[in-house]
Amino acid sequence: MDRVTLPEAAEQLGVTPSQVQRLIATGELRAERFGRVWAVDVASIRERSALRPQRGRPLSEAGAWNQLAQQPPLSGLEKLSAVAVAVRRRARLHRCRALPAELDTVADDERVVLGGAVGAAAQGAATAGLGLDVYVSESVWPAFAVDHHLSTGSAEPNIYVRVVQDENWPFGDDGFAPLVVCAVDSYERLDRRSAHEALAAAPR
After folding, report:
1. What does 72-124 look like in DSSP terms, one character per residue?
2. To the nearest whole percent, how much of the chain has pLDDT over 90?
3. 159: enclosing H helix or E strand
4. What is the DSSP letter of 176?
5. Which are the contacts of 128, defined by CB distance < 8 A and separation ≥ 6?
6. N or C: which end of the chain has fewer CB within 10 A?
7. Which CATH number fits domain 61-201: 1.10.8, 2.20.110, 3.30.460, 3.80.10?
C-alpha cells in the first residue's frame, strides 16, 4: 500500500491537515498511525478526489436514500458523478478483508444486499468488477463481521461493507440494490466500466 504523510494528503486534496484528520476519523480516508505520524493510503485519496464535494452539503443518510429512490434513469457517468457526490453519506463504509474462500458465503448471507458490480451483474449488467460490495443494517453489522471473520480497515480490502441505520434501511427482499445504487458503488471504487454497465442495464 502506497502512503503519504498527513500534510501531503492535505495538499493533494486541497484541504487542511485538520480536515484530513476528520476524514480519517469518519472512515472516509484509510490511514495508519505510527507514533505521532499518520500515513495516509494513496488509493483512498484517489477515491476521495473522485467524490470531491461540490457546492452545498452532501445529503444526510435518509436524504440520500430518498434521492436514490426517486432518481430518474441516468444517461452517463458525468451525471452519475453528481449523484455519487450527493449521496456519499448514504451508509458508513467499512473496507474489509475476508479469506477468499469466505467471499461466496458472505454474498449468500441472507442479511446482505448485494451492490456494486456483483449486484449489477445479478440483474443483467455486463459487469466484472473486482471485490464485493454489500449493504447490511446497523443492527446486524457487529455479528455479521464476527461470523465472517472480517478484518476491518484493511489496506487490501476485498469486501466493501456499507452499513445503513435500521430506520433508513431502503431495500426489499430480493437481495440486490437498485442498479443506480450499484452504479454509485462502482463509481466510488473508481470502477468506471462497471458503473457504466450498471447504468446501461437500468430500465428506461
Report:
1. PP--SHHHHHHHHHHTTTSSEEEEEE--GGGHHHHHH-TT-EEEHHHHHHTTT
2. 56
3. strand 159-164
4. B
5. 117, 121, 194
6. C
7. 3.30.460
Give the tens place of pLDDT for each residue, 75-103. Answer: 888 889 889 989 999 999 998 999 999 99
Extents of the domains making up the chain: 3-50, 61-201
Q: Please state the rounded mean pLDDT for residues 167-194.
A: 94
Cell of 51: 467524490
Cβ 88 vs Cβ 65: under 8 Å: no
pTM over 0.85: no
Which cell numbers hold the place of 165? 441505520
Contact 100, 144 (CB under 8 A): no
C-alpha cell at 139: 443492527
Confirm if 58 and 85 have CB atoms less than 8 A apart: yes
N residues, the chain:
204
